[in-house]
Amino acid sequence: MIKISNKITSLWLLLLIIFIFSEAKAQYKLSVEELFEKGIEHSIVIQSTYLKVEIANDKNSLAKNKRLPDVAVTGQFGYVGTPTIFDKDLSFVKHTSAPDWRQNYQLSAVQPLYEGGRINNNIKRSELEQELAQLSLTQDKANLKIWLVGKYLDLYNLYRQRAIYSINIDEAKRRLQDIRKMREEGMITSNDVLRSEIELTNFDLSYQETTNGITLVCQQLAIALGMDEDLLYEPDSAFLNLKMNMDEGIDNYIETAYHDYPEMRIAKTNIALAKNNLDITKADFRPSLSLQFGNTFQRPLPNTSPVQDLFIDSWGVTLNLSYKISSLFDRKHSLSVAKTQISLQQLEEEQQKQNIRGIVKSAYLKHKEALMRIKALETSVEQANENYRIVNKKYFNQLSILTDLLDANAMQLDAELQLTAARTNAVYTYYQLLNVCGRL
């Protein structure tokens, strides 16, 4: 019976081990480079912006094609009824003979010679729209990177928190064993044991909540990166060793943002578009000159009486000059609208500059604060560790109560968690600064 019982116990242990390993998820080391590469590759927003860039490129090609001749080929083939001739009083005279079928084939080519700058300005407009599409793509990529960095740092923070809780759980278990021995020796009451057990349970719950948080963030990243949702992704700890250059002054960051921040560059391009629209408006008040070549092959002979059932082939070259006189009535208001749009875009650029100064300064100061916070919390962690060591020694020498020991442990845990959050926040604020400067 003992052998059978041992076999059953071994079988249950084996099944338990298999279950644990089946539940455990495989881990994948995720680098920052792969994070950005996969994120950009699978982002729906980025894919949409790429399509907008492609549309802008095609529109530019279409605008350039306007320089080429406009070639048209037409063909007509139809039945012709018998003509009837009437007298002045509409009395019937006779039916004339005519061919039953009419055919008309034409080839024409019109080459624009002068359009008042309309064609060239439309090409320039399409090029500016290309630039806007590229700037939107750059901005969308930067926004995506900021989001990915935030999730990446959240994941790192959760892993660090779980490691801290794991250390505290081990310490709480060891402390509980010592407290139970002291209770058996009658040195303390059962209340200390109960409170220590409650603290250990709270640590276990926090550990499990952190583990669940890791699973959720990993799934969010997996969806965004188009990767396996069943994997646990582990961030590269070297990411926190990023060299954050803060030697530049705030004025240099602002000047860089004026030139490189996508929204600022978009504002400048909008001004160029408004000026280009003014040039296109002026072109509408200028004459158009074009050269036309045509060839016609038709039957029967036109404008002959009686109608002759013969083919005729004719060609010609024409110089066309046109001027839209009615545009003079709209000139004043059209130019006023175009000029007002330029002024409006210039005001928006100035407003954007004011916003950038505030955004850059805010990001700069927040990053400075984050770096200062790290130094302060590093000192706090050292002090909290020393305080716990002293109180722990006093408690087991019965020179302090359990409340003091648990408070010291809570202070130590809080300081370590705050330091972890501060380190990840410093990296995030640095990336925010790079983003608003157009360097991300």
Short recap of the structure:
By secondary structure, this protein is of the alpha+beta class.
Jot down its keywords.
440 residues; alpha+beta; Outer membrane efflux proteins (OEP); two-stranded parallel sheet; 9 helices; 8 strands; 67% helix; 14% strand; transport; TolC-like; OMP_efflux; Outer membrane protein TolC; efflux transmembrane transporter activity
Question: Any overview of this molecule?
Answer:
A four-stranded antiparallel β-sheet has the order 2-5-7-8, with no helix packed on it. Strands 1-6 form a two-stranded parallel ribbon. A two-stranded antiparallel sheet has the order 3-4. The protein folds into two domains: 26-67 and 115-287 and 330-436, Outer membrane efflux proteins (OEP) (Up-down Bundle); 72-114 and 289-322, no CATH class. The model is unreliable at 1-23 (pLDDT under 50). Helix 3 (44-65) packs antiparallel against helix 4 and helix 4 (118-184) packs antiparallel against helix 5 (190-225). The chain has helices spanning 2-23, 32-42, 44-65, 118-184, 190-225, 250-260, 262-283, 327-396, 402-436, and strands spanning 27-30, 70-79, 84-86, 92-95, 101-114, 232-235, 288-299, 312-322. It is built from nine helices and eight strands. The protein has 440 residues and is α+β, with helices and mostly antiparallel strands. Keywords: Cell outer membrane, Coiled coil, Membrane, Transmembrane, Transmembrane beta strand, Transport. It is found in: Cell outer membrane. One of its GO terms (cellular component) is efflux pump complex. Belongs to the outer membrane factor (OMF) (TC 1.B.17) family.
